[in-house]
Each structure stands twice: as C-alpha cells, then as structure tokens.
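Narrative of activities, Objective 1.

The group set out to show that a structural description can be obtained from nothing but a protein's sequence at a throughput compatible with the screening campaign. Below is one input-output pair from the validation batch, recorded exactly as produced.
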Amino acid sequence: MPTPKQMEKLAAEAARRPAPSAAGPDAPLPAKYWESVLKAPRASATVAQARQRRLSDIKGHVLRVSCRRCERTVEIQTADAVRLYGANAAWKDVAQRLLDNTCQQRTGRHEEDGCWPAFESP
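Output recorded for this entry:
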C-alpha cells in the first residue's frame, strides 16, 4: 500500500500528464486508415461478386464455406472442386452443394430445410 506522500506524488504526476486523446465513436477516422482499407485485396470484390466467381477464376488453394445455421464448415481444395464440378461452375452453387450433401438440419419443409451458406473469401 503506498504511503500518503507517495499517493500525493502519483496524483501530482497524473495531473501533469496530458490526457490521452479521447476520440469518441463519432470522431472521424484518419485518411490513412481509409486508404489502407480501400487498398486491401478484399475491398476490390464485394461478397456478391466473390460468390458469383467461377472456380477457374479463384486463385486460392482451399475453398471454405460455413453454415450460418449449424455452424458446420466444409473445405475443399480448388483442384478437387474443379475436377468434381467443372471449371465453369459458380462458387456459390458448389458451396451450396457441399453443405447440402452432409446437411443435418432436415425438417421436411422445403422452406426450412438445408444449410445457410456463409461464404469466406477464397
């Protein structure tokens, strides 16, 4: 436990130190931040565009899709996906098939059956 003299010294030091800049949630972000965000590789394609890509256009080695409903994740190598589904197959169709082949959420109603894909950028 600090002595009263040490506590006074700490309080005086704290009063002398400048307070850290308290940028609130509404404060504008610096321009450098936005430049780095826009230059990121993922910024060039939207999620919808990434889903529509053909397997032949995807450069990644492994494709990954997860289910929003049961939180199951399925991975497949790009080369295997091209071999099984063809180079012109859309990634969203392949991902849906991969999830549906092993779906555990079957209720018997078409509207409720199946998995809900969450596409991760390849």
